[in-house]
Design brief:
The chain is built from twelve helices and five strands. It is of the alpha/beta class and 270 residues long. It folds into two domains: 158 residues, Rossmann fold, CATH 3.40.50; 104 residues. Strands 2-3-4-1-5 form a five-stranded parallel beta sheet, with helices on both faces. The structure holds zinc ion.
Length: 270
């Protein structure tokens, strides 16, 4: 099963059970998939089909309006080509969520390339996140979550969406089995990866051994990928994961950063 579909099932289940958190950050480079999932979530919430199980029906007025990006209770924010998201856009969001929903029971806000919010915009957005209106649902996209304020990241649920998993790719390329533990992690939800991280973080030695293994493995795969002239996007993705793992090792060895935090950074990017 594709990892993305696992993530999707997870959020759809939450949407169906009215159990969504008020803010999500969709990570990763699969923009098409992120858009598809975000719109579907909004549709599930707004759809008026009488059978709940059949929502979204894609046929009612709200479903169609959301698909066409013209639903009055969903605000879609994205930076203009090459520009930042300014504090003006964030003010629009604040105004939007301060009014009661018009055609549904929620207010949806989608922010694409959220990392393009400049500093003032991020601080303004943080204020909204600190006291979110009860019926608001924020979905942020970012391929570079480290550019977002830590205080924003800690208030959103992160869900990764990648076009491919470097670890799954690794096994295709090398023909070798993915070490079982990596394969299991790669297919796990973020919260399960975090529990795994919490578990091994109890021992610094164990954490370092785990990261060294992963780094060794990624290096072999990266080498194979470069040698066989693989896709540049894949190579970049593998390279950035390897760099991240290397950084985590360095943090754990030489700084006071919490072992668990360093491991979690890696878990997000798997
Ligand atoms: Zn519908």
């Amino acid at each position: 099963m594709e990892k993305s579909s696992l993530q999707e099932q997870y959020v759809y289940r939450l949407a169906r059970n009215n159990a969504l958190a008020h803010a999500y950050l969709f990570l990763g480079n699969d923009t098409e998939k992120k858009k598809e999932v975000a719109l579907r979530i909004f549709q599930m919430l707004a759809c008026v089909h009488h059978d709940k199980e059949k929502r979204p029906c894609h046929d009612c007025i709200p479903c169609k309006a959301i698909a066409g990006d013209r639903f009055p209770d969903v605000l879609h924010v994205q930076p203009e080509e090459g520009k930042e998201i300014s504090v003006g856009s964030i003010r629009k969001i604040a105004t939007c969520v301060s009014f009661a929903p018009y055609a549904s029971s929620f207010k949806g806000v989608l922010i694409e390339e959220a990392d393009k919010m400049n500093k003032t915009a991020q601080s303004a957005f943080l204020k909204i996140l600190e006291e979110p209106p009860g019926n608001a649902l924020f979905i942020l996209f970012s391929a570079y979550p480290n550019l977002l304020l830590e205080t924003i990241r800690s208030r959103v649920q992160m869900i990764p969406f990648y076009q491919f998993s470097p670890l799954a790719l690794a096994s295709q390329r090398t023909g070798s089995e993915i070490p079982r533990v990596f394969s299991k992690l790669e297919q796990s939800l973020l919260k399960d990866r975090f529990s795994f991280a919490a578990e091994i973080a109890e021992s610094q030695v164990q954490s370092l051994a785990f990261l060294q293994d992963m780094l060794g493995y990624l290096r072999v795969v990266l080498f194979e990928e470069v040698k066989s002239r693989g896709e540049i996007l894949r190579i970049r993705r593998l390279f950035s994961l390897a760099t991240l793992v290397q950084e985590a090792i360095r943090y754990i060895k030489y700084t006071n950063v919490s072992v668990r935090l360093a491991l979690e950074q890696v878990m997000i990017e798997l």
